[in-house]
Amino acid sequence: GLTERMIEALPAILSGRTKATAVMFPGGSFELVEPAYRGNATADYFNDVTAGAVRAEADARRDGIRLLEIGAGTGSTSERVFAQLKGRDLAEYRYTDVSKAFLIDAER
User: Fold this and answer.
1) For 67, how many CA atoms within 13 A lie in the half-sphere containing its CB?
2) How far apart are CA 103 and CA 91, in angstroms?
3) Deepest in the core among 4, 11, 42, 43, taking most CB within 10 A?
4) How far apart are CA 44 and CA 17, in angstroms?
5) What is the pLDDT of residues 39-65, one digit of tens each?
6) Alpha helices in 18-63, H assignment, sequence order
7) What is the rounded average pLDDT of the residues 34-41?
């Protein structure tokens, strides 16, 4: 898993020989990190809490809601938020992340 791979690569990461993102996303794959963001009880709970809060804000507004997601990552929170906003007016959605790999995947 992710933890084991990161621990194994720690000397190379700390010495600057390897980027942490290269270990976390081998070949641009999200396979190692995705279980940390979705499909586990803790991540799912907080994604649902966030989605519920966004829905409540959308319900309280007459105009379309505008969202800015900072740190969009694997899109696991976005997925839950969009499900909660189904049928509501989403005027604008913008996102960002420090990892270019996440942004490229999100554009697909």
Assistant:
1) 22
2) 21
3) 43
4) 35
5) 889 999 999 999 999 999 999 988 889
6) 20-24, 34-37, 41-60
7) 87
Question: Which two structure tokens, joined as six digits, stand for 59?
Answer: 């319900």
Residue pair 69/96 in contact (Cβ under 8 Å)? The answer is yes
Residue whose C-alpha is closest to residue 72's, from 54, 41, 48, 93: 93
DSSP class of residue 64 equals P
Domain residue ranges of the chain, discontinuous segments joined by +: 1-29, 33-107
Report pLDDT digits (tens) over 62-89: 888 999 999 888 889 999 999 999 988 8
- Rounded Cα gap, residues 41 and 88, in angstroms: 27
Residue 16's beta-bridge partner residues? none
Query: Which residues does residue 65 pair with via DSSP β-bridges, in sequence order?
Result: 90
Is the pLDDT at 1 greater than 80, yes or no?
yes
pTM of the model: 0.73
